[in-house]
Amino acid sequence: MALVVLAVLVAVALPTLGPMQRNYRVMTAASQVAGEIQTARLLAISRNASLQFSVDSATGSYRVIDPADTGNPPRTAKTLPDGVTFQTVPSQPLTFFARGNSQAGIIRVGAETFSVQITVSTSGRVKVER
After folding, report:
1. In the chain, what are the domains?
2. Each residue of 117-127: pLDDT tens digit?
3. Which of 1, 13, 87, 128 has a CA between 20 and 30 Å from the CA of residue 58?
4. Is 56 helix (H, G, I), strand (E, B) or coil?
């Protein structure tokens, strides 16, 4: 009898695990992208120079670049997890200035019907929203 109850519970719970796992991957990816954006801001402040956060939506990669020295980026490129894509990206790289302020921009990452928005304000504040 206990095995029958367990089998019914597993049969009911199993279909919800897929979307939960997908949503977790998207949330984790959004947090990682937001963290790298914050790193770009902090590096711009510490170097007293402008730095950019660049996204390549075709490959799902992103990186911090120094527009004054494009051949030597301060951070290596990172890639979104499998199944997660950039759905909305700014037309130009986000630029962070020496005081920490930036160009405002929105980046949206997602998978299938679930997505998360990363908003960067002109003050340089980074916010992750569902």
Report:
1. 2-129 (3.55.40.10)
2. 999 999 999 99
3. 128
4. strand
CB neighbour list of residue 91: distance below 8 Å, 6 or more residues apart: none
Residue 84: C-alpha distances to residues 69, 73, 110 (Å)? 30, 24, 5
> Comparing C-alpha atoms, which of 26, 17, 18 is closest to residue 110?
26
Joined together, the tokens standing for residue 91 give 């037309």
54 residue type, one letter: S
What's the residue count for the chain?
A: 130
Q: How far apart are CA 67 and CA 89, in angstroms?
A: 19
Could you report the per-residue pLDDT of 97-118, keeping only the tens digit for each? 999 999 999 999 999 999 999 9
